[in-house]
């Protein structure tokens, strides 16, 4: 049986795009999903920055210790201000400064080195380390000496102190903090804590 061709009116309706109502609903859903996703993405990014800064600081401390053992001599780890951040590195030639040829890391931008009093109380860390007191090394320029065995030297003798470097953002504490612990043996630990929370070891 012969069927008539579809009318031009039917053809136009089939080719039509989204209506204004459908477009408005789609854009509203998209904006809601974006508003939900952005805070989660930002928190993940800040967490990455904190972990990266702590890992790089721990890495340069380990490298300096390795160099002292490899060269069988005392070598210093240095911290120097660099703009609003900190330059940390290995003083391989005992010049007293971090030269261009020295292995170094810039800890700056969102995650930087903080003085004591900004991050949460380190009570959980000291308890885990047998009640030993912590000496804050971050927040001011200074140096740490590794001897030929890789241990920490202070005043010519092996240190009995445990050093801590706090990493975080003083203006954005809601993203938490990291702490790099340097033991007298020269080994390191990495701890994490939320703002106003308790420290937990993660590395």
What descriptors fit this protein?
alpha+beta; 3 helices; 203 residues; single chain; minor pseudopilin epsh fold; 12 strands
Task: Itemize the secondary structure elements and their pairings.
Elements: H1 8-15, H2 20-71, E1 75-82, E2 85-91, E3 104-107, E4 112-114, H3 123-128, E5 134-136, E6 142-146, E7 152-154, E8 157-158, E9 162-168, E10 177-182, E11 188-193, E12 200-201
Helix coverage percent of residues? Answer: 25-40%
- CATH class descriptor: Alpha Beta
Shape descriptor: elongated
Please name the CATH architecture: 3-Layer(bab) Sandwich
Strand % is 25-35%
Largest sheet, order of strands side by side? 3-2-1-6-7-8
Computed structural class:
alpha+beta
Q: Please identify the oligomeric state.
A: single chain
Q: Within the CATH hierarchy, at the fold level, what is the topology?
A: minor pseudopilin epsh fold
Weakly predicted, low-confidence segments? none
Amino- and carboxy-terminal Cα gap: 80 Å
Give a count of the beta strands, DSSP E runs of length 2 or more: 12
How large is the count of helical segments?
A: 3
Q: What is the H-and-E element order? A: HHEEEEHEEEEEEEE
Output the CATH homologous superfamily.
minor pseudopilin epsh domain
The residue-averaged pLDDT reads: 88
Q: How would a textbook summarize the main sheet?
A: 6 strands, antiparallel
Whole-angstrom Rg: 27 Å
Number of domains: 1
